[in-house]
Specification:
Blueprint lengths: L9 H27 L9 H10 L8 H9 L14 E5 L2 E3 L3 E12 L10 E10 L4 E10 L5 E16 L12 H7 L6 E19 L2 E17 L7 H9 L6 E13 L10 E11 L9 E13 L8 E14 L31 E11 L6 E12 L12 E13 L4 E10 L4 E7 L4
Antiparallel strand pairs: 1-3, 2-3, 3-4, 4-5, 5-6, 6-7, 7-8, 8-9, 9-10, 10-11, 11-12, 12-13, 13-14, 14-15, 15-16, 16-17
Helix pairs in contact: 4-5
Length: about 450
């Protein structure tokens, strides 16, 4: 029998965070400064300080394009004033416990549609891929800021043939003796696998109403069909939940109106050095829009970035809090909030997609990011996260916590947009662990 991760008291959580931050500062920061920036630079003239600032300028950084240029055109003189394209094309290679190994093609783009002093970089991404676990994905996403940030358009379209591992509802620790409850809560966290096809469309339009403050509205359509369980019968959480709360276990829709308030001061959406990103939203699933049931869900997303060095702003301490809270109604089982159910599916490194899920969900993460090479081609990160969720039976929000943590490497793919290839290894409870690959930071 697999042993669950021990219950974490608030004291232990705070102690773990303090130890993580302390260990990070004592080891990683000092190593980076001593190895790549000499001690004497701290007492030299102002010109040395300017040099370090220049090192952080994209013209003096080194990315994949520079690597290819030095390999195939070693004698070509470097033009530091050349404007780098904001488009990055690369094989869509990824690896994590949810999807297995992935191969495909991926494009990421970034451009500023106005003056850089008052307009945030707009980003877009698209991919077509297939994985060793039989997952097929095509999606297009965008986050567009018009001139002077007057409007912000966020959205994504996806067509997916999915293979989704599942470990039940809530954070129950012991069996109750009631068969259906035990199937649904799955205290041992045995893995069920669901196969299905889905179409997702999500679009939101924000209007800037004052400095850095936006009001938004939009819609979402999440349509799932042909849901099949690896168990081959009805003893799986999706079937029990669907029958208990009036859903068809083989197909359902979550179609909704979206209303959001956003406050944003971060300097870059791909890899922020400083600032805040906050988004609070209401999702209203509506039967008149084709939703299987009406439901009302509150979502909160808060991210704060601290640059720890003026000389090397890539030393960043980043905090992330994400929450999704049931107000009324019911969501379908596979649409319940949980691990990696945020908009970019990057929360909860250490666990698979939806490993923890419930009626409501609360998530915290802290990450320290630091340069390894002076030219910023290689960087690193250490991170720690905790999460809590609930059900209608014996698992309450904030009562039980599960933790995970790890470290990773960053390879600079496009210095013009701060696009990094992120390679992370994370360890969680229930013997969960894995390698997580992706473009750009998790948050």
């Amino acid at each position: 029998m697999k042993k669950p991760l021990p219950y974490l008291s608030i004291f232990k959580i705070i102690l773990a965070l303090v130890m993580l931050i302390t260990a990070t500062f004592v080891s990683k920061t000092s190593q980076a400064q001593i190895k790549f920036v000499t001690d004497s630079s701290r007492i030299e003239t102002d010109s040395s300080y300017v040099i370090h600032q220049i090192d952080s300028n994209s013209a003096y950084q080194y990315d994949i394009a520079d690597l290819f240029s030095s390999m195939f055109h070693p004698k070509r003189p470097k033009n530091l004033n050349k404007k780098r394209s904001g488009l990055t094309l690369m094989p869509g290679i990824a690896l994590n416990p949810t999807i297995g190994a992935q191969i495909g093609i991926k494009g990421v783009a970034g451009v500023v549609l106005g003056d850089k002093s008052n307009t945030t970089m707009s980003t877009a991404a698209s991919t077509a891929s297939v994985t060793t676990k039989g997952i097929m994905v095509f999606y297009v996403s965008h986050n567009i800021y018009t001139r002077e940030n007057k409007w912000n358009i966020q959205g994504g379209w996806a067509i997916v043939k999915m293979v989704n591992p599942d470990a039940g509802l809530g954070m129950t620790k012991t069996f109750s003796g009631e068969t259906n409850d035990d199937i649904l809560t799955n205290p041992n966290k045995d893995i069920f696998v669901y196969k299905y096809t889905s179409l997702s469309i999500n679009e939101k339009l924000y209007k800037r109403v004052s400095n850095n403050l936006f009001l938004g509205a939009g819609f979402a359509f999440d349509i799932r069909r042909n849901i099949k369980s690896s168990s081959g019968n009805n003893d799986n959480p999706n079937y029990v939940y669907s029958k208990r709360y009036g859903f068809d276990p083989e197909q359902y829709n979550s179609n909704a109106l979206l209303f959001n308030v956003q406050y944003m001061t971060r300097d870059n959406p791909n890899r922020a050095y400083k600032g805040i990103y906050t988004d609070v939203g209401i999702r209203m699933n509506q039967e008149w829009m084709g939703s299987s049931k009406n439901a009302l869900q509150l979502t909160t997303d808060f991210r704060k970035y601290f640059s720890l060095s003026d000389e090397n702003p890539e030393h960043v301490l980043a905090f992330w809090n994400y929450g999704s809270y049931r107000i009324s109604g019911r969501l379908p089982y596979l649409d319940l909030p949980g691990t990696a159910k945020d908009a970019t599916a990057r929360s909860g490194r250490g666990y698979t997609l939806g490993f923890f899920k419930g009626l409501s969900y609360f998530y915290n993460e802290v990450e320290y990011r630091f340069p390894i090479l002076r030219n910023k081609f290689l960087s690193g990160a250490t991170f720690f996260n905790i999460q809590s969720t609930n059900n209608d039976m014996d698992s309450r929000l904030f009562q039980s916590w599960r933790a995970a943590g790890g470290a990773g490497l960053r390879v600079l793919f496009n210095k013009a947009t701060r696009t990094n290839l992120c390679i992370d290894y994370a360890i969680g409870g229930y013997n969960r662990r894995g390698l997580f690959l992706g473009l750009n930071e998790s948050f």
